[in-house]
Specification:
Number of helices: 20
Shape: elongated
Structural class: mainly alpha
Largest sheet: none
Number of strands: 0
Distance between the termini: 147 Å
Strand content: under 5%
Helix content: over 70%
Length: 375
């Protein structure tokens, strides 16, 4: 029936159009559309602002939300959208004002209360941030992120006990949150609680053995605790992940050396020097090992090469002097040690060794005269 009516109307229009005299007549005036209300305009701008916000176009979102609020000043969705857009755009002072504006109407909105606390945090208003986060905790006591942020703030304020409690509460809610574990471990390290730090780093390493940063921290703590076997094991894992790291190989070599595994230590130091001849620290440690193994010729060759790289290395000078002593070249050793006698770090050792060489010379002369008398 409707289709037939539409066809009849169409035919009528065609007939009228071609009636004599009808072609010059004007058609009917267009009907004016109803004007949009202020509320409709506000909604249109707010929806467009939401789209811009979701797309990351924060400046555009801010402008659209403000246009919405010009139409309807108390439009809640536009107020909230503007507060979030300002926060995302990094306009912290304006964002704080808008968050406070929203919270006057909705004081129990935990999301906006947490957003306000975060804005205070990044604005370095730490006391206000704590105050707002504690209000959030009363409303949402099982939000691990709130406790994590409180832990960070307390640690920044120097409130160690409060920071530990906040991090531990966060971990009660999310025990495997690696970011919180790292924050807690770092806090322990900064306060010289090495055993506690090691325990937390062990948890991180167990959860993700490919985390190079955590493995390096665990190695460092293990070295400080003189737990060299553990330091060696973890550092070896680091070198699997980053085999070209001379710094980590140097730490491994030192761990072997302190664990009295000098052959393995020497091999690691030699690997470093072979691959990176400019890595100065390895020369001195390796030279000391060569002297411990009574290999003075290798020490002298290595020290000579190292001093070419670092002419001011008192450590290598002293190692060279010790090697000369092992060769019973005491007078030459005195000359070598004298070169390091004024060094801040090695000067006292050099002076002691000079006196030792003189004693060895005196003893040699005594033994020589003793043999001559027997003849």
């Amino acid at each position: 029936m409707r289709l037939a009516l539409r066809i009849s109307i169409l035919l009528f229009a065609v007939v009228v159009l071609f009636l004599p005299g009808c072609a010059a007549q004007k058609g009917p005036k267009p009907v004016a559309l109803p004007v949009a209300t202020e509320e409709e305009e506000a909604l249109k701008f707010a929806l467009a602002g939401k789209d811009s916000l979701l797309a990351g176009r924060y400046e555009g979102a801010i402008a659209l939300f403000r246009q919405s609020l010009e139409k309807v000043p108390n439009y809640v969705d536009a107020q909230k959208g503007l507060a979030i857009a300002l926060k995302e755009a990094g306009k912290n002072e304006e964002a704080i004002a808008e968050h406070l504006n929203v919270l006057r109407t909705f004081p129990d909105d935990a999301q906006f209360r947490a957003g306000l606390a975060y804005l205070y945090l990044v604005s370095d208003s730490l006391d206000r941030a704590v105050e707002e986060y504690l209000k959030v905790v009363r409303k949402t006591p099982d939000d691990d992120k709130i406790y994590k942020n409180l832990g960070y703030i307390y640690s920044k304020k120097g409130s160690f006990a409060d920071a530990v409690m906040a991090y531990e509460r966060s971990l009660e809610i999310r025990p495997r949150d690696l970011e919180t574990l790292k924050s807690l471990a770092t806090l322990y390290m900064e306060n010289d609680l090495l055993a506690e730090a090691a325990d937390v780093f062990e948890k991180i390493f167990a959860a993700d053995s490919s985390d190079v940063s955590a493995a390096r921290n665990l190695t460092s703590v293990s070295m400080k605790l003189e737990n060299y076997p553990r330091a060696i094991a973890v550092c070896r894992r680091v070198l699997v992940l980053d085999p070209k790291s001379d710094g980590d190989r140097f730490i491994l070599a030192n761990a072997y050396q302190r664990a009295k595994q000098t052959d393995k230590a020497a091999a690691e130091f030699e690997t470093i020097i072979a691959g990176n001849p400019d890595y100065r620290g390895a020369y001195c440690s390796l030279a000391q090992i060569y002297n411990e193994k009574n290999l003075p010729a290798k020490t002298i060759a290595l020290a000579s090469k190292g001093i070419e790289k670092d002419p001011n290395s008192a450590c290598l000078v002293c190692a060279w002097g010790k090697a000369l002593e092992l060769q019973s070249k005491f007078e030459e050793a005195i000359q070598m040690f004298s070169k390091a006698s004024g060094d801040a770090q090695w000067g006292q050792y050099a002076e002691t060794m000079i006196k030792r060489q003189q004693s060895l010379i005196d003893r040699r002369e005594f033994e020589k005269k003793k043999k001559e008398r027997k003849r």
